[in-house]
Specification:
The chain is α/β, with parallel strands linked by helices and 441 residues long. It is built from 20 helices and 14 strands. α14 links the parallel β9 and β10. The termini are far apart.
Length: 441
Amino acid sequence: MRISVIGTGYVGLITGICLAELGNNVTCADRDPSKIQRLRHQEVPIYEPGLQPLLIRNAERGNLQFTTDIREAVKRSDLIFIAVGTPSLPSGEADLSHVEEAARDIALGMNEPKIIVTKSTVPVGTNHRIHAIVAGLTSFPFEIAAAPEFLREGSAVQDTLHPDRVVIGVESGTTEAVLRELYRPFTDEIVVTDIRSAEMIKYASNAFLATKISFINEIANICEKVGADVTEVAKGMGLDKRIGPAFLQAGIGYGGSCFPKDTEALIQIAGNENYNFRLLKAVVEVNKEQRFNIVRKLRETLGPLRGRTIAIWGLAFKPNTDDVRESPALEIIKLLLESGAAIRAYDPIATSNFGRLMGTASVTWCVSALDAADQADAVCLLTDWDEFKRIDLTEVRSNMKLPLMIDGRNVFTPRQMRAYGFQYYSIGRPGRSEERTGSRA
């Protein structure tokens, strides 16, 4: 098919490249000339495993192009995906200005009948808003559809090429047939709904996953008080097929570009309809509070933090990505700096992005995890990169001023860390007092 994708951010770029991989002729369009220039030189502006080889292969095949001329991209396409950003406004609502701008560009580029598909995460009713904008600017016939994305950063290529399911919201059998043909090579599990239901499926899915994370973190906090082990609790829960093991890993809470934004947006969507979404509000509050357990554990162990040197391992909100948006590390480091601590930080991929976003010269950016731990009073592990799991703990301990580790992702076990001579605290597992009473660690 002849396809254009408007927006070469995370969702748009991966969508365009993966659609090209299936043999479609894809044009990715974006207003940012520097981004398009990099893509034309086969440089990927985001970190995502496996993406660059696909870009290179399909660019060389000739079925993947990049342009800043959005209207021209529309002209040469039958199927147009809107994949621009919908960041949060101060109210928590989704900012639809980029979506509306894309709709106007599409209308002004129309030269024959088109199908317009929204891939961006948008509030219920947005696709019909897009329809009204386009219809007001063109006399050419067109159809609208919704095809929300369900990508996980760090495994987005795999998720796109081998999805659990594809959701499409349509208003006509013709559009349904076209989208079924497009997505059939990905999966047979294609869920077809009306457009408003498809829009809601995306928000409901992310809100439910965020709820699982906040729930297991609340259980972890109780486990610490009663001497239970949340990793064993989660395993026992996850074996129940009604619950499942996914998103039951206790830690310092969720971050990134989706869960924080989408939960706040769904709360606002409900509020606009005079519905108080109390459960989701509690999920958000639990998540905001959870990250500060790291700082509380430091204070309980070290006392006042002024003058202490704290090593931070991990700045991205999750491993295998350079995305630091809404990363728990942002607020944790800010609070530690406000407490007078000196910070030595390291991340395998995300350090430069984090430094730009945080905009502070008060952090020492280190070249390795071992470098960050040098003469530190404590290490705080905030992102569970494989590199940290494989590190030589004997060497880490010998580099530190005090052998204290706060493990915000439960990468290690208490027994393992005791064997290396560390004072060790994790999330939702027995602390030192419980260990003395004979609890299994």
